[in-house]
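Supplementary material to the annual report.
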Amino acid sequence: MKQQFDVIVVGAGHAGVEAAHAAATMGGSCLLLTMNLDSLSFMACNPSIGGSAKSHLVHEIDALGGLMGILADKSAIQIRMLNTTKGAAVRSLRTQADRIKYHLTAKKIIEQNKNITIKQGEATQIQPYNDQLMIRLLTGEEFCAPSVVIACGVYLQSNILIGDKNLQSGPSGFNRSSHLSSSLQQLGLELRRFSTSTPPRIDGKTVDYSQTTIQHGDDNIQTFSSLTNGSIKNKVVCHMVYTNKHTHDIIAKNITKSPMYRGNGLGSGPRYCPSIEDKIATFPDRDRHQLFLEPESLSTNDIYVQGLFTGLPGDVQQEFVNSIDGLQHAQIVYDGYAIEYDCIDSTQLFPTLEFKGQKGLFFAGQINGSSGYEEAAAQGLVAGISALLHARHSDKTLDLSRTNSYIGVLIDDLVTKGTAEPYRMLTSRAEHRLHLRQDNADIRLTQIGRDIGLVCDKRWRVFQKKLKQIEQVKELLSQSILHDGEKITIEQYIKRGNDIKDLELFKGITPSVLEHVETETKYEGYLARQNRIIHESKRQEQTKLPSDIDYSQIKALSREAVEKLTLIRPLTIAQATRISGITPADISVLLVWLKKNY
Amino acid sequence: MLQCVMQSSNTIVAIATPIGNAGVGIIRLSGPNAMDIVSRCFVAFGNVKDLTPRLAAFGRVTTPDFSDTVLCIYFPAPNSFTGEDVIEIQAHGGAFLLQKIVDHLVSIGATPAQPGEFSKRAFLNGKMSLDQAESIIETIHAESESHLKASSIIYSGKLKEQLSQFETELVQTIAQIEATMDYPEHDIEHTTRESIKPQIKDIVNQIDSLVSTAQHGRIIAHGVQIAVLGRPNVGKSSLFNQILGTDRSIVTTIEGTTTDTVSEAILYKGLRFVFNDTAGIRNAKNEIEKLGIERTNKVINDADIVLSIFDISQKPNSDDRNVLELSKDKNSIIILNKSDLVNSPTDWNKFLGENAKIIRTSALTGKNINLLKETIHNIATQKQPKSGDVVITNTRHLAQLNIAKDSLTRALGNIDTLPLDCIANDITQVIDAIGEITGTRASDAIIDEIFSRFCIGK
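Predicted assembly:
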């Protein structure tokens, strides 16, 4: 008799952990498989969480009852709010994480969850088994469940590339997974090669900090999670250094030795996170590039050199690192590298992240062609919830869309547009950006998380308290105060760009509540317009496309449109409009056709 | 699997030519049973058995009540206007006759077509794009040379070209803002608000000048709206008829006969003049007259030009003063009628003041009627853009351009006080509005509007 679970999660990275936590919190029995117990929630690249748009994802994960915000807060060693002057919609929290503490904190939370069984082992095969799915490990052990979440990150057939060396390995010296790819292909998944890169880590004691610029954390610290109460502090500072002409010469001279260099045949890499080789080749006129020295953990001396992603040979890396002021004597402890890996075509998935070709098989994280911990975690959360709903034959749905969340935007982009390079979240991808802010993530999503069974009582109470405070503050907006000798209402006071934090009236109110009301007041006109547009697009979301349409029979559609529509099988007209290659003319045809036939 | 063959199951029929008595009228059928239906009422002369594709057949259509000799042309699918089997019957052009034939075709299996249904089918069968559909509507609705010309400029792609250029520039502007927001940690060149200001200002001005052509565009599309105003019995109706050359209004000497507004149009030098006659101006005594006066006010409000008519055979009275008052804020032409009766209207010169544009006419003799038409034409073309320039004639385009202009003006106004995310939002709305015009965005609302403007039989 095979051991039986509600959900099996393959991979315990940022997606897998979030998926297992969600399914288990909702009451499902969950097997979490990992190739290495010490790689659970491992930060293989940047030791940081958040930043532009990614912060929004973390706030949303937290609002829905997910894990990442809590983990990031608990392991934060430096906290900064970015984009403070550029508007409430793009204001983004970014924390430097202690990557070792992050891993341990996650491990502890997962271990304490009685519904989760953790197991080290390499999944090699997945196949339908009766009405369920069966997973076989390299050791021959077999498990089955109605739902499986594949969250294997960049480990499938991964190669580490440094100069002309090509190592069959996962990141950071962990084993790669060599067998699962072909099993996925047998199920009908199309695989392709993506790549990404990571910078060298240097030994902190070999840096001459006197030649660097210090970057401090914020004085007023905010948190990702509404459950974190004021205990987090800045514990480290980061430092800035710059490349120079000499650095660029070294890189240019050796550029053909890099696997990242164009024409060397590496899988698609992220434009948003270019290697230093790419930067030098693309912007030959720039005389310097900014780099950040970021401590990886309070427990180690390792420094992450943000901005120096590279696949150049080790000796070249050492040479150009030493060409930088402040790093003349820096010692690389771990070379930067490029990694190439298998991922699937995300348009083969439904918005639940279920594979269109196999019921109960879900995918989340970098396997779907995304990049970043936050993007992975967001998908993990959705896949975990969807997987449990499937296992339970529940008719509940997780209502995340482009109009209510960045997670909705992320998923829709992946399953509708697909991606030709590792997908990174950007605020500009969200057309309703003014509405999708950090400060209202819980207002947008906590009810949804509660309904689905993921938001615990404590989080719900905190949320209710916030709602009550917001009401309180809003009631006071019409009160008049004396400002510069003039009697004006608090609403006018806010609209003139003033901060209400300092007003006596609001003593004792949580700063995040005040910030929320300030934003809603200041942006009133813009938000009203945005809401009208959201309303309009929701209407389009409601125009459903029957799943059994034979698009090839609609003569007016272009051939490309027929192919794309048949492949993606959009659920609504709105989703169809977002498929690349589908023209407005095609949409017009569909609309008229629908009206005529339904 | 659902079958969704676009070949419609029913065969539609409608009169394709304008309703009215003409030499020839065309009835069009489209659908799989077109041939079957026609063969049941049409017999070709001579020994011709079957209709040859795209060859006119001479013969007779027979209905239970009458028969008519017609030409019949068969366009087999897919090489037809709709992409379906189409048959056109050219019959004699009487409205009643054509309708009787259609009624008979319906009784033997055809379905009366909905407005725009032929074009909709053509569109669905890939026979034309949405752009083309829109251009067909404009062409169908064009009632003057200038309107045809304006539509042809737009569909030559000149407007699209101009808008695409705005779009490109705006996308560049927004990219600067987005980069600033999406890469806060990187030292990419940060946008200063100052650098995007002139870019936005420039496009606002350009959109504004496009919007300003709409006034002339409306004149082109809907004609010069002319309100004809005057107290009762100044000879308004007879002058009106003199201009039109027909007996449209009832001309009578009983005051207040013309209580309703009556519109008639003439073509003059490629422009349509739409004359809207109004009820006589005086203090209304009964309900019908009051209603008439309300309508009069609306006509004056909507008018491009007001013709104020006075009877110079009489002295100016309070009603005349009222007329002068009503037209004072409008582009107005003063007409001194009945000039065949009086030569030197001294009272009137004083009454009208010095600056008035005065034309002396006689509705009886037709004196100066051509001068009046020329004057109207001159006023109407004062704001005419350079020949070959884009003129906005489409109300949908104008509405979107106004949204674009408002959003961009707001962005400009807020650029020093509001955060960049708001500014980006405004600019995005401009890009969306432009996209709605050029068709890079599609919404069901647009489709509905476009096809609802078709008339039956097209």
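DSSP finds 15 helices and 13 strands in chain B.
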